[in-house]
Fold this protein.
Amino acid sequence: MCKNQGNCSLFVSPIGMFTFTVKLIRELAMKAKWQILMWALCISVAVCGQVRWVDGGLQGALEQARQLHRPVMLLCYETWCQHCKYTREQVMTDASVGEFFNKNYICVAQDMDKDAGPEMNKSIKIHAYPTFVFYNEKGEIIYRIEGEKKPSVLIAEGKNALVTERQFPSLRAQFEKDTTDGDHCYQYVSALHRGGVDCNAITDRYFATQTDKQLLSELNWRIFTNGVSDFESRMFRFVIGHQREYGRIVSQERIRRKMLYEVRELLTPLVEAGDSVGYLKKRPLALSVELFGTDSLVFTYDVFLWGLSKNWSRYRTACLAGVEKYAWDNKTQLGDICTNFQKNITDPEATERALVWTLRLLKLNTNYDHLMVCCELYARLGKTDDALQMAEKALALATKSGWDGVEARRKIEALKGK
């Protein structure tokens, strides 16, 4: 029997149980609703915090731009590009970036390797990724920048693109009004240059208005740096012929950097494509710069291209002319060259020179492979004792390192058998 029945809670009537159950269900339902609402709100905030991309490609974006009277921001990317991946996954999902561009632009992204990308690139000519191209509602390009940008920088560039005076059409009109005005030319060319747009036609028109004496100025150097890449243009030839004078105006280091950059831009695509015909055609232009840095770069391209194509005759000529000048302290490049001479170039003159290079290489970096290359070169020249000495050094090094040194053992046996 339960004492103090008036206060006992062990007994609940059926009606009370029903009321309690309904109340509990309502509380749980309300809690579930709030959880669902909060979850939906979180998703909404996450989505609103990133750039909203429109469907339908560039044409679809331009149609919306005309309806909403907004400009278009086109992101040009390629899937293999790590900078593009970072831009799409980290920068364009940044809340501040999303807020700014969703408010001010119609945004569209295009993989330049797929769908309309290749055809589009025939007209806009993208050379670096990612590239941002800004259009007005008429479909005119008004601004352009290339490269990975931090969120704050990208927003700043987006704001610049909204300023009429900084847009391409305004800068072009300003330049056309007086093509002799260097300041207006520089403003126009530097804006185009930042977007990866070829400016040679514009700078040719401007520099045609300048005498040789006028060309020697800091402003004209800045126009040249931003807008001239044509080695055969009057201005490029003039700068090459007046490097000392420009060095006094700016600095020799700035000249060196500009020339190195242009030589890379001129020759790298040809080397990467294995285009020996195009390379031989453009190579003299690079050599006409006559700087140690650019000559060294051409030597590196020579060695790479002729080795890749197995043109050992040209490879031999390039190395005999340039190794001691350009590769003497580069143990990696020197090692590759010595190995290729040992394996592929066998005439006595080349072998003698390769032996000198290999002895230099051993001073820079003594290892098993280099010792065996030296051994083979000595053997080819009939210097058996020297070859044997190198093979024994190679075997000792292999043994010390815990290797079997089979190649060295066999060579020692062969040399002792002579």
In short: Confidence is low (pLDDT under 50) at residues 1-22, 32-47. DSSP finds 22 helices and four strands in the chain. Residues 14-48 form the longest helix (35 residues). The beta strands are 72-77, 106-111, 131-135, 141-146.
